[in-house]
Design goal:
By secondary structure, this protein is mainly α. It has two domains: about 5-55, no CATH class; about 70-215, Nitrile hydratase alpha /Thiocyanate hydrolase gamma (Nitrile Hydratase, Chain A), CATH 3.90.330. The chain has helices at about 5-25, 35-50, 55-70, 70-85, 85-95, 95-100, 135-140, 145, 150-155, 160-165, 200-210, 210-215; strands spanning about 115, 120-125, 175-180, 185-190. The chain has a two-stranded parallel ribbon with strand order 1-4. A two-stranded parallel sheet has the order 2-3. The longest helix is centred in the first third of the chain and has 22 residues, at about 5-25. The radius of gyration is 21 Å and the shape is globular.
Length: about 230
């Protein structure tokens, strides 16, 4: 069946409204509407567009920016440059916004940023306990788990337990620092450079770096033999 995106969203909104009404008429307190966040966002988008509050073209341009121009690969290039260029790494750790701007990544969501470095005996983890403040210019939009209440609370209360759930086991001799992002100051983790990357180019290094490693819930894996030849 062929349908337009707007038609789908309109139908989704109608279904949601019908579900709520049915729950009220039947006297049930539980909500019949699926709690899927994506569906709710799309329904809200459709409503704003249809009322003329949001321009679809402007919205599409904004989404394209964060999907294709702003995202974790920007941060990966920052990390790769720091690994490959000691002078850049020094600038990055002393004045992150200026160093990051050298690579062309700037945004109102990252004017005040601090880069913290991981090492063999030091590990950094980033969280935002109040909401979901995040360094958009280098990591794009925050993942769902970063915004979730369990992560925001447990990352402070039980950071080692949280890391273990992500598959990262830290030794007791590793000092763990948890950084709480705010609207005024956001953090980016400079992951520890894995072994076996000494002869890799910046592009090859950047391909190894993951978003999770730059938040601190993972380490950058060592390259597979022959995987970057």
């Amino acid at each position: 069946m062929n349908t337009t995106r707007r038609g789908f969203l309109t139908a989704a909104m109608a279904a949601a409204a019908h579900g709520q009404l049915g729950a009220q008429e039947s006297g049930h307190d539980h909500q019949e509407v699926p709690s899927d966040l994506t569906l709710r966002v799309k329904a809200l988008e459709s409503l704003l567009v249809e009322k003329g509050i949001v321009d679809p073209a402007a919205l599409d341009a904004l989404v394209d920016t964060f999907e294709h121009k702003v995202g974790p690969r920007n941060g990966a290039r920052v990390v790769a440059r720091a690994w490959a260029d000691p002078s850049y790494k020094k600038r990055l750790l002393s004045n992150a916004p200026e160093a990051i701007a050298e690579l062309g990544y700037t945004s109102g969501q990252g004017e005040h940023m601090l880069v913290v470095e991981n090492g063999p005996k030091t590990h950094n983890l980033v969280v935002c306990t109040l909401c979901s403040c995040y360094p958009w210019p280098v990591l794009g939009l925050p993942p769902v788990w970063y915004k979730s209440a369990p992560y925001r609370s447990r990352a402070v209360i039980d950071p080692r337990g949280v890391l273990a759930e992500f598959g990262l086991q830290l030794g007791e001799d590793v000092e763990l620092h948890v950084w709480d992002s705010t609207a005024e100051l956001r953090y980016l983790v400079l992951p520890e450079r894995p072994s076996g990357t000494e002869n890799m180019t910046e592009d090859q290094l950047a391909a190894l770096v993951t978003r999770d490693a730059m938040v601190g819930v993972a380490k950058v894996p060592a390259p597979r033999p022959g995987g970057n030849e």
